[in-house]
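Quiz preparation item.
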């Protein structure tokens, strides 16, 4: 007996194809949606998600109680703090109160003092400065930060973002030619790139220009010992261990902090009036977009950056927030940055010219900022269309050829190189396997991006395949890759071997950790307010997932999305109806009644009205607490007696 949940948006509702069914009938029609049941003898079949293994969060109860009393926080907050390594009450207080005064001395970062001194020298000599940044959010915001502060102090600054399709990634010879065509700069600052660009750095020196590199990518070649390189992951050692979590935007902020310290020591009046805290809006964007851990100083950056974004001072930031349909003055979350703002900024580098968002962040013209923000939204819509087509084609390739493999390596010479990094990320999330997606570059070169599951280190895996690669670099979870097309097949097999070996000793099981079990009436704005002290959530500090038991929906789920892949739902909470959304789960409808749902909680604000919003992660038939077993995998098919 086989049940196939073929859910297609057919007229009149969802049609279920059931092989071997004795009878297929329509239960009822509600709000224009048909709810169907397939009857097999004396059983009713309901197909569930079944992709995640639910596991109850276990912590030391004594530690939790100690934290609760010392910090005077609710038990769930204390439980989450203990589970995330903050069992000592003093470190837990530091986590809950991420004050700006807790930022380290910027000169603790290797070579940052020397870099700040060189910037002071450039300002005093009135040198011309060229800034070249990468075309992603981290590079774009870093460029805006550096160009903005140098212009504030009167420097003549030009900035450049590589044009992806004709200049390539990073500090390429093509983007250097464009920068020097406008006149030889005295100082060239490369941001979010160039750690491994030894030939280009020497080319710059040969023309009498001083290079500075501020970057966070891993070094894959010997480091240039004469270079002013602010990169904890380039130098490694103690500096990498202490400061290796920063993205480039965070390192640029520290450089600006160091620059201000030196200028204030010289009694520079402008340095005393410069608002360093106001720059945290861009630092927060960079930190969230580059998926670095939201712990330590990164947590301070994002926490205060989000406060800046509630009432942004930059006209460009106000414009892009409005395009994301977020209300000015309302609290923003890291998720708002990830899903509403960052994709619009990234779209320019993927589709067209990534200097546009830099201009948007630096301009003081409201009209120009709004025009660029609208243009970025149009680019993002085009990016989504292209990405969706490639993702569907790539998914068919995966399902045909990769079911028995532990990794995915795809190549298609027609795919748009600007979006294949996003495609790699979606495939990794969908199939829970390390994924590399490649397309054809000029000549016979394949270029693309890789994304990795938590628990594995993509940079380490690529280093073991380096004999097949022409270029590579990035972070444990994401990397850029280039190689001759003739090497793709050999790389695919080598990558599979090394991923398989890593999986023998590393558990990357797709567990869903349930922080706490709740009843529907426990869902309230009060509960969400308690959790806000643990924000911002993201990599290194994940948003907690709660199990809500015995849920009965007030109305049938409403399906939406261009491919009918999502649905909305409502159930009754303490403060009234709770609105929820399930992204990408419409294929698993209909929902059993009653059911247990795994959700993440937030508060939405629309038209001045605040209400609890839940995001469904998974669902299964309701099981009484005495029948729940931690770590058990939900059934893919639930059989309920009629």
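Solution:
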């Amino acid at each position: 007996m086989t049940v196939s949940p073929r859910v297609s948006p057919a007229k009149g509702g969802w049609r279920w194809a059931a092989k071997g069914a004795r009878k297929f009938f329509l239960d009822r029609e509600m709000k224009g949606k048909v709810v169907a049941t397939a009857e097999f003898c004396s059983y009713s079949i309901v197909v569930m998600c079944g992709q995640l293994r639910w596991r109850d969060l276990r912590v030391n109860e004594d530690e939790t109680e100690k934290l609760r009393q010392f910090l005077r926080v609710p038990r769930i907050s204390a439980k989450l703090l203990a589970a995330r390594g903050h069992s000592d009450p003093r470190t837990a207080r530091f986590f809950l109160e991420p004050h700006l005064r807790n930022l380290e001395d910027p000169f603790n970062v290797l070579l940052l003092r020397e870099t700040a001194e060189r910037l002071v020298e450039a300002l005093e000599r009135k040198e011309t400065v060229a800034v070249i940044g990468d075309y992603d959010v981290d590079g774009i915001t870093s460029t805006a930060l550096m160009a903005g502060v140098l212009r504030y102090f009167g420097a003549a600054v030009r900035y450049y973002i590589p044009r992806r399709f004709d200049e390539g990634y990073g500090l390429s010879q093509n983007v250097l030619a464009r920068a020097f065509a406008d006149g030889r700069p005295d100082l060239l600052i490369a941001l979010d790139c160039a750690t491994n660009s030894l030939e280009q750095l020497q080319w710059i020196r040969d023309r009498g220009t001083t290079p500075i590199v501020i970057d966070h990518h891993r070094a894959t070649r010997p480091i240039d010992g004469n270079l002013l390189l602010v990169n904890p992951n380039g130098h490694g050692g103690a500096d990498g261990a202490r400061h290796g979590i920063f993205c480039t935007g965070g390192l640029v902020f520290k450089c600006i902090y160091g620059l201000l310290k030196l200028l204030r020591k010289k009694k520079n009046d402008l340095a005393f009036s410069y608002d360093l805290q106001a720059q945290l809006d861009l630092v927060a964007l960079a930190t969230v977009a580059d998926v670095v851990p939201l712990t330590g100083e990164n947590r301070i950056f994002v926490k205060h950056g989000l406060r800046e974004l509630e009432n942004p001072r930059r006209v460009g930031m106000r414009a892009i927030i409005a395009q994301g349909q977020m209300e000015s003055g309302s609290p923003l979350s890291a998720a708002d940055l990830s899903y509403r703002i960052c994709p619009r900024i990234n779209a320019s580098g993927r589709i067209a010219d990534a200097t546009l968002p830099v201009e948007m962040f630096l301009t003081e013209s409201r009209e120009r900022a709004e025009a660029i923000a609208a243009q970025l939204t149009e680019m993002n819509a085009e990016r989504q269309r292209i990405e969706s087509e490639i993702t569907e084609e790539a998914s068919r390739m995966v399902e045909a050829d990769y079911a028995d493999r532990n990794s995915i390596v795809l190549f298609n010479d027609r795919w748009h190189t600007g979006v294949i990094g996003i495609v790699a990320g979606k495939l990794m999330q969908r199939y829970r396997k390390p994924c590399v997606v490649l397309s054809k570059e000029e000549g016979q070169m394949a270029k693309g991006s890789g994304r990795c599951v938590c628990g594995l280190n993509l940079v380490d895996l690529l280093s073991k395949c380096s004999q097949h690669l022409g270029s590579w670099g990035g972070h444990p979870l994401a990397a850029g890759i280039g190689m001759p097309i003739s090497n793709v097949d050999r790389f695919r097999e080598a990558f599979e071997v090394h991923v398989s070996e890593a999986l023998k000793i590393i558990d990357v099981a797709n567990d869903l950790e349930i922080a706490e079990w709740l009843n529907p009436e426990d869902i309230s704005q009060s509960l969400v307010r308690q959790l806000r002290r643990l924000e911002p959530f993201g990599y290194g500090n994940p948003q907690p997932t709660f199990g809500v038991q015995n849920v009965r929906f007030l109305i049938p789920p409403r399906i939406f999305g261009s491919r009918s892949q999502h649905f909305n739902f409502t159930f009754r909470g303490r403060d009234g109806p709770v609105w929820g959304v399930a992204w990408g789960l419409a294929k698993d409808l209909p929902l059993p009644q009653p059911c247990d749902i795994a959700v993440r909680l937030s508060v939405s604000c629309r038209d001045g009205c605040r209400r609890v919003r839940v995001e469904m992660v998974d669902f299964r038939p309701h099981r009484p607490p005495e029948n729940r077993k931690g770590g058990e995998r939900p059934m893919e098919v639930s059989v309920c007696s009629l």
